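Weekly modeling sync, notes
Attendees: S.R. (lead), two postdocs, one rotation student

Agenda item 3: backlog of single-chain predictions. S.R. asked that every request posted to the team notebook include the full sequence so nobody has to chase files. The rotation student volunteered to paste the first one in as an example of the format we agreed on. Action items at the bottom.

Example entry:
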Amino acid sequence: MEEKVDVIIVGTGAAGLFCALHLPKTCKVLMVTKDIVEHSDSYLAQGGISTLLNEEDYESYYEDTMKAGHYENRKESVEIMIRSSRDIINQLIELGVEFDKENNELSYTREGAHSTFRILHHKDITGKEITSKLYERVKERDNITICEHTTMVDIIEDEDGCQGVVVKDEEGYHVIRSLCTVWATGGIGGLFESSTNYRHLTGDSLSIALRHKIALENVNYIQIHPTTLYSTKPGRRFLISESVRGEGAILLNPDGERFVDELLPRDAVTEAICEQLEKYHSNYVYLSVKHLGEEEVKKRFPNIYERCLEEGIDMVTDLIPVTPAQHYFMGGVHVDSNSKTTMDHLYAVGETSCNGVHGANRLASNSLLEGLVFAQRAAGQIKEEMKNRQVKDMELSIDFSKYDQFAKENKKLVLDEIKRRDGEFYAKWCNYEN
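Predicted structure, as returned to the notebook:
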C-alpha cells in the first residue's frame, strides 16, 4: 500500500467517487473502503435524484426542502445544491448514467413533501445506476487506486492539521500520508438494531472526530424511514421506496383503514405509523399498491417487486407489511459550503458530513444530489490547496495496539454523543444492546 498520496478518500460511495473524478488526473488518489465497493448505501438508493426543473421551479423546490427540514436548513447550502442540480444531472448523463425516459424525454416522478414531479430515476435502482457508472469511470483513471477491506482507524494530526490516515487491512496497520483527506464514510445505520443501511457503516468518522475535537453538527438528527419491509429475519431492512407512495400507494392500519396522507414528510408519516403500531399493539401496518395494476407495478418497481416475492408477498395482489427503521443521517461532521471540516486539510462529503442542506429532516431524493454537489466543491478546494503544498515527511511513533481498544469503544462513543444531545430519541430508537 502507498505510503504517500496527494489525496486519500475514505469511502467509495457516490460522493467519494464523484470527488475522485473531479480531481486532476495528475493527482495521485487513494480510495479505501471498509468492505467492497458495491457495499455502499449509495447502491441501495431506490427512488431517484431531485433536480431543479426550471427557473420557475426554484422557489417551490427551495420551500419544499426548507419545510421538510423544519426550516433548520442552512440557507446558503440549500441554494448551492438547487442551483447546481441541472449541471450535476448533465454531468451524470455524460458519464453514462441512464435515467428513465418517456417519449424520448426525461421522466420525472414525485415523492413525499415534493410539491411537483422533479425526481429523475432509473427504475427503482437509481442509486445503483448512478454509483456503478461513477465506479466504471473511476476504474478508467490510472491516477486512482482503490483498496477494499481497508478500515480507517485514525487520522494523523499535527499543528498544521490533518496529514493523512491510519488504516487497517488483512496485513495489519498502515500509515498513509496525504496533502488532503476526504471522509466519505457514509451513515451510521450499523449502530441501530433496525436499519436500511449496511451493518458495517458505524460512524467511524464521528468517533475519530470526537477524539480529535473536530466539530460535529446535529448528530441527533437521524431520519427514520416510515416504510421498510417488515421481516423477522436478522440483518439490514429492505426499503420500500418513498417513490412507491409517490406513485399512489396508500397506508392502511390492521383494520384496513387509511390513516395518513402518504406524501407528508417522512417524520410525519413515521409518527403516524408509530401511533397505529401502539394503538393496535402491532409490529407493522400495511402498504397497498393493488389499485395501481400489475403492469405499472412490475414496470416501475421491478426490484421491489422481486424482493417482496422472496418474502412470499405479491405486491400486485397482497398488502405489504411495513414498519419504520433508521434510514438516513442528516447530522454529521460539520463542514462549510466547500465541504471543509474544522480541521485544516480535512474534508467530509456525503452522508458523513453536515453542510446543513437537510435541516432536521431530509426531503426525499435530495441525498444523492447533495452528496454529488458538495463532493465536487470539495474537489475544487483541494485543487487550490495542492498548488501550494507538498506531502510532509514526518517522524511518527504510533502505538497501534491502542486501536484494538478504540474499535471496542467506537460505537458507544457515538451513541453516547447522540444520547447527550437527544435523550428522548436515544431512548426510543437507539437504546438496545449492540
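Discussion: group reviewed the output briefly. The mean pLDDT is 94.
Action items: rotation student to repeat for the remaining queue; S.R. to check formatting next week.
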